[in-house]
Amino acid sequence: MNIYVLMKRTFDTEEKIVIEDGRIDEEGAEFIINPYDEYAIEEAIQLRDEHGGEITVVTIGGEDAEKQLRTALAMGADKSVLINVEDDVEESDQFTTVKILEAFFEDKEYDMILAGNVAIDQASGQIGPRLAESLDIPCVTTITNLEVDGDKAKIERDVEGDVEKIEVSTPVLVTCQQGLNEPRYPSLPGIMKAKKKPLEELELDDLDLDEDDVEPKTKTIDVFLPPEKEAGKILEGEIDDQVNELVGLLRNEAKVI
Amino acid sequence: MAKSTSEELDLIRSSVRSLCEKFPESYWRETDENKAYPEEFIQALTDEGWLSVLIPEEYGGAGLGMVEAGAILEEINRSGGNAGAGHAQMYTMGAILRHGSENQKQRYLPKIASGELRLQAFGITEPTAGSDTTSIETTAELKGDRYIVNGQKIWTSRAEYSDLMLLLARTTPKDQVKKKTDGLSLFILDMQDQKDNITIRPIDTMINHATTEVFFENVEIPVENLVGVEGKGFKQVLSGMNAERILISSESIGDGLYFVDKSVQYANEREVFNRPIGQNQGVQFPIAESYMDIEAAKLMRNKAAEMFDEGENCGAEANMAKYLASEATWKAANAAMTTYGGYGFATEYNIERKFREARLFIVAPITNNLVVSYVGQHVLGLPRSF
């Protein structure tokens, strides 16, 4: 089975994020594998261990993303590809990413492409479905269970708390949701083996793409942090007075009614 | 030996942290309370290859060095755990690796790497000799193709949880050797095979450390289990001590950072007189001071580990690292006790457990007083003080 995993290096949203000039300040941020992509990597490893084959983890980014690729290799992936756009792409959006991936997959053979349901940074959730559309293969999002039998895949997906059961033919692209599995962390032999596994680096040129081909279709106007949570207010006094005060506050201060 | 990049070292650290998350402080509190061996934790460490970090790849290990081994142990102790239950499986085999025959390496190292055999007991200290190792009285007498061992060891940790023991015994009486460091020999003792001739008596201690007294009565060791050269065991043991010092200083640093992490968190959260107690310099300063000391000790540990991995003589650095780390951590332990106040004494908060554990490294595996006299005599050229 030829398995591909789309992985994104993201900043850790559990750490403090600083925004400077409309961009996330990378200096102080901690970077991790997008947690939903970890489900995808784990599922790929389980599929490979059961059905045989090879896992290639693909990411788009700069040299820094090598660290996350090495981690994926140490978890158990077989190969990795860094599509390095550091020097070529200044601004990007989901269109850019899908366009690059589409070019990458053009000459590839694949039975299964796994991705995270969303990335925790921008959380658009678009890459998986849009890439499947470009490659003209079926796509199932937010999956919580996956069984492959020959060229069929039986999938359970999370639909707002309910479960939808789907049967689909491969090749297929799936996006992984929490609950699918428990991602492993690298063991020491895994880390040692990863040193010898291939990490291929490609640039736009290698994919026959120009900067113009991947120019984003959207423009970011502003980037800002959510307002800081303020201390709550406890109203006191008779219930009637409290209700009056609450309505007044909602109307005049919060301006929601 | 392979060297890790800083990224690989980060990955080692984060993987060990992930493993340790499965063994939260409640786990360690329970094993401490029940004086139980943390078998599940040690098994997990073994299964994921962490204890065979120092064993060369050709014998089934990772083939890494002190830098990586230290990072692993440091992270375990920083998580609130106690690496002491398994650290010796990492380094006791060093004597076989450095001084053993190829046959011994083939016979033992792969099984130690896989965890099939545990070699994590080292019989060296005796009740009458203490730190004066050349005065040990346990004897090994050659009869035919076997050595017959009689005597007694004390403070032999994990003897009940080890298949093999590295044993130092006298093969030539002290009054018949030219140098007093001669006449001692090092053996691999198969404790399973000889269990009828060995009595292990656990010593109840202030911490959960599985330490014991071991008695040998006509214990038989085949000649092929003599490590290195007969009569040169003391020297062979010394070369392994540096590894132990570096790893112990790493555990101690882990403890120290645990205390700092915990103190900072508690001092920020706990409010008394309507403000976090960390706002008080009496609380804040000891935490900051001990943190600086730990960071400095870490530099010495790093230096010693790098020298060890380069094959340089790091006796002074390894000893100084152990001293600096354990003293700095003891400062941090006391800062944590002060920060937590009465809650520091409540077992539920874990501080008192770690406090007890951290105190060990001031006296073991060698007392800091002897480190100081070593530095005075051997590093600075002052007169021998004992």
UniProtKB/TrEMBL annotation, chain A:
Keywords: Electron transport, Transport. The keyword Electron transport applies. SMART domains: ETF. Heterodimer of an alpha and a beta subunit. It comes from Salinibacillus xinjiangensis. Belongs to the ETF beta-subunit/FixA family. One of its GO terms (biological process) is carboxylic acid catabolic process. The keyword rRNA-binding does not apply. Its cofactor is AMP. PROSITE patterns: ETF_BETA (PS01065). GO terms for cellular component: cytosol. This is Electron transfer flavoprotein subunit beta. Transmembrane segments: none annotated. GO terms for molecular function: electron transfer activity. The electron transfer flavoprotein serves as a specific electron acceptor for other dehydrogenases. It transfers the electrons to the main respiratory chain via ETF-ubiquinone oxidoreductase (ETF dehydrogenase). Residues 21-211 form the Electron transfer flavoprotein alpha/beta-subunit N-terminal domain.
UniProtKB/TrEMBL annotation, chain B:
SUPFAM superfamilies: Acyl-CoA dehydrogenase C-terminal domain-like, Acyl-CoA dehydrogenase NM domain-like. Gene3D superfamilies: Acyl-CoA dehydrogenase/oxidase, N-terminal domain, Butyryl-CoA Dehydrogenase, subunit A, domain 2, Butyryl-CoA Dehydrogenase, subunit A, domain 3. Belongs to the acyl-CoA dehydrogenase family. Keywords: FAD, Flavoprotein, Oxidoreductase. Residues 121-219 form the Acyl-CoA oxidase/dehydrogenase middle domain. It comes from the Bacteria. Its cofactor is FAD. InterPro entries: Acyl-CoA_DH_CS, Acyl-CoA_Oxase/DH_mid-dom, Acyl-CoA_Oxase/DH_mid-dom_sf, AcylCo_DH-like_C, AcylCo_DH/oxidase_C, AcylCoA_DH/ox_N, AcylCoA_DH/ox_N_sf, AcylCoA_DH/oxidase_NM_dom_sf. GO terms for molecular function: acyl-CoA dehydrogenase activity; flavin adenine dinucleotide binding. Residues 6-116 form the Acyl-CoA dehydrogenase/oxidase N-terminal domain. It comes from Salinibacillus xinjiangensis. This is Acyl-CoA dehydrogenase. Transmembrane segments: none annotated. PROSITE patterns: ACYL_COA_DH_1. Pfam families: Acyl-CoA_dh_1 (PF00441), Acyl-CoA_dh_M (PF02770), Acyl-CoA_dh_N (PF02771). Signal peptide: none annotated. PANTHER family: ACYL-COA DEHYDROGENASE, ISOVALERYL-COA DEHYDROGENASE, MITOCHONDRIAL-RELATED. Residues 231-361 form the Acyl-CoA dehydrogenase/oxidase C-terminal domain.
